[in-house]
Specification:
This protein has 89 residues and is mainly α. The protein has one domain (2-87). The chain has helices at 2-17, 22-50, 54-87. The chain is elongated and about 55 Å long. 17% of the residues are buried.
């Protein structure tokens, strides 16, 4: 699912790249980079969870899910920030 979301996001970026201003791209890239870093943390947490058992595994999986949700929220915030920049141009 994460791979699909990343591919969909990348395709959206490519489609919109032609009509974005430099400021919009800068805002979008900043949020996207932050979201990607959070996704990497989630991936690392999931890998760690694979090596755990029982309650520890569940705790790590929940932490990974929370990180993925944070990454999604960061991407949404980036989209809103990009839209705000676009409206002010």
């Amino acid at each position: 699912m994460k791979t699909f979301v990343k591919i969909l996001g990348l395709a959206s970026l490519v489609a919109l790249a032609a009509c974005d201003s430099a400021k919009e791209n800068q805002v979008e890239n900043a949020y996207e980079n932050k979201a990607d870093a959070i996704d990497n943390q989630a991936d690392n947490m999931e890998a760690m969870a694979d090596n755990l058992t029982g309650a520890a595994e569940n705790t790590a999986e929940h932490a990974a899910d929370a990180l993925e949700n944070k990454a999604d929220a960061t991407r949404e915030a980036g989209e809103k920030a990009e839209d705000a920049v676009e409206k002010h141009q």
